[in-house]
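Q: Got a minute? One more chain.
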Amino acid sequence: MTLAIEINDAGLAIAADGQLLAEEPGYAMLDGRQPETGHAAAKRMRLAPVYSESRHWAELGDVALPRTMPAATTFAEVAHAQLSAFAAPWQERDRETMFAVPPWYTREQLSILLGVAKETGLEPVGLVDAGLAAASLEPVPESVMQLELSLHRAVLTLLDYSGGLHRSRFEIIPRHGWLALQQAWLEMVAASFVRKTRFDPLHDAATEQQLLDQLPAWLDSVREAPSVTVEIEAAGTRHSLEIEAQAFAAAAQPAYRDYLRVLQQARPAGAAMHLRLSHRLAALPGLSDQLAEIRDCEVVVLPPGAAAIGALAWELAIRRNEGGLVLVQRLPTPLRASSPSSVPEAATVPAAAWPTHLVHRSRAYVTDERPITLGTAAPPGKRVLTVAPGPGISRSHCTVLRDVDGVWLEDHSTYGTFVNEARINGRVQLRAGDRLRLGSPGVVCELVRVVDDDGATQD
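A: Always. Here it is, folded:
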C-alpha cells in the first residue's frame, strides 16, 4: 500500500487507501535538544516566540536558519524532524510514498525534499503538483482554478484541459496566509477586550496563547451563529465578551480583497469561473458569501487532504518505478460532460439589484432605455459619456443600457472592458455595486442604485 503526503505548512496531510490519516500544522519549537513539531509546537508558539519556527516547508533548503537554534541549524533539519515524527505511525507498514508539493518549489527544493524523505525512511515514488492533484478528484471543465491557503501565503493554481488536465501557471498571494489571518483576528479580539474591559490579552504571552488555542473553536461557531462568546482566564480572573460574526469577516477583509482581485484577474475573458476551493478557505468566516457574489462563479469545496487523496487516485499516472522522479504537472483527469465555457446572457440579477445610475467623476447618469455609450469619441446622435483618452480605451468603447430584463453592458472595444476586474467580452448583466474599468490603469465608473425614503427607486 502506498502513502501520499501533501506538503502544505497550514496542514501537512498524510493519506492511504483514499482516506486522510492525519493532518498537522507546519510549526516547530527549537528550544530543546530535539525539535518539537506539529500540534505540540502550536501549543507553545506564543509562549516562546524567539524559538518558534514556521518557514521550514515554505523555504525548504539547506541554508542556515535566520538565527541560531539549539535543536536545528537549517530549514531542512527542521523539515526532517517534523516529517520523521509525522510519518512514523504508518511507515513501518508503508514506505513507498508520493508527495503532492507546492507549485513554487524549485528543482533544488524538490531534491532536498526527496533527500529528507529518504533520511526519514520513506521511499519516494512520485511527485505531483498539489493544486493539480487536488483539482483532479472529480471531472473538470476545460478551465479550472484551485485556491489554497498556506501559513505565509495563498496560491492560485490555473489549470487547463488539453488531452488531460495540466497546470498552466500559478499566482502567489503574499502576506495573506493563515498566520496573517490569525494575527488579524487576535488583534480584533484583543481590541474588543480593551474597549469593553480595558484588559489587553496580547499584553501577556500566556493569554495570547489562550487566544490562539481557542481561535479555531470561535471560527467554527461564527460559521453557524451570529456571535460567539470569548473567554480568557488571567491572574485568576475570567474575562468574557460577545463578538459578532461580522467582526471576524471584517478583520479578514484585506486578505479577502486580494483573493478576489487575483481570482477576477485570472479568470478567462468572457467565461464562467470554475473554482476548486480548499476546505481551509471555505471555512473562513464570510469568504464563501463574497465568492457567491462573483458573476458566473461555480465553487466546489475540496475535502481535507485533497492533494494527498488526489495523488493516490492518480497513482499509476504519477508513480515512477524506474529512473529519476519528475514533477508531474499533467493528469488524465476526465473532462466533465457539460462544461459551458462562456458567460450566459440570460437575466440573472433580481430587479431589486438593478443599478439606477452610472457614476463617473462624481456625476451620475441615469440608466434607462436610452443607451449610454462610453468612449473617447463616440459617434454623434448617441447618448454619450466621453472619457479621457488612455491606453486600451477605444473611441466607442462600450454601452450601458436598460431593458425589461435588466441593465446590461455591451463591449465594443479592442482591449476589453473590465467589470470588477474581470474582462468582459460581448454582453453581460450589471448589478448595483459593480465597478467598470476602461483601459489600463484606466477610467473607472461605478454602478449604484438610488432609492428615496420610501424605498422606491429614483430615476
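A: The radius of gyration is 26 Å.
Q: Perfect, thanks.
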